[in-house]
Amino acid sequence: MMKKQSQVNIVHSIDCGNYMKYRSFNGINYKNDQFFQGSSEFVDYYDEQESVKVIQTLDQELYTTQRQGLNFFYKLPLNKDSPETQNYMLTLYFAELQYSESNARIFDVYFGNKLVIENLDIYEKVGMRTAYIIEISFQIIGLQVLYKGEQINGALSKNYEFLIRFKAIKSLAAIAGIMLKIGDNQIEIANNENPKNTLKAIDGFKKLSDESLKIIESEVKEIQKDLQKNHANELDDPNNRRSLKKEIKLIEFSIKLLIILTRSPFGIVLASSYFGISLITLLQLFFNEKQTITERGKTKISKQN
């Protein structure tokens, strides 16, 4: 007996081409066809179900209704309150129920503007009247979509909708079902081959940034102590005090900027790069301030004489 699946992590499950809801053999509730736009139409093979038996599946009805078209897409609404970093698994259900030869129906699948499945020929893959399933992992960080370690454009709308596009090359593109599930955020996505965009790498950047901030804060405190200790007499001059406060405010602003940057994953990367520049700037600031105060002290002594 097939074990029923949980709906807990399912964001969307859609029976494409079906006007009605559908409950699968393993207990998944599929919505009627929705969230689609573009040049497409419902195609229903239900009347031919007696002669059109789809093999490799227990869900005949899921595959006997399809959405087909030249160029269409689905805009799947996502939860705006989701964690800033979220893994997803997209499952696409296909079956060739019209053509009995390869090279008859060929189409591409896109995430926004990114081609993720090229020259898909269902008959060539599994033959006619056979269920064919493709699973694709991807990641959303903030407002950016990552696929195989690459940031892709146009896959997430301003309204926080994920865009899947089907574009025909020969005949019409066809899709029988779509399921979008939340993945496990505790593990890296298998499809993200480039480690620089994995959760592990991001945690590493965050750790590096935290250490960088501590070092910068320590440097600032040392500079403040050194200025106050070595130039106590010169700081009696109001002009010198104003200059010093101005420079210290600049240092404090730099620290606050770094803290803000580390609140987002891409900011973390930027903050890590900024760390090296900040250290150089702090050192230059220290020596410039020391030289300026010394010169002002000499000028003051000269005027007194």
From TrEMBL:
Residues 11-178 form the Malectin domain. Keywords: Carbohydrate metabolism, Endoplasmic reticulum, Glycoprotein, Membrane, Signal, Transmembrane, Transmembrane helix. GO terms for molecular function: carbohydrate binding. It is a single-pass type I membrane protein. The chain crosses the membrane at residues 266-287. It is found in: Endoplasmic reticulum membrane. InterPro entries: Malectin_dom, MLEC. It comes from the Eukaryota. Pfam families: Malectin. Its main location: endoplasmic reticulum. One of its GO terms (cellular component) is endoplasmic reticulum membrane. Belongs to the malectin family. This is Malectin domain-containing protein.
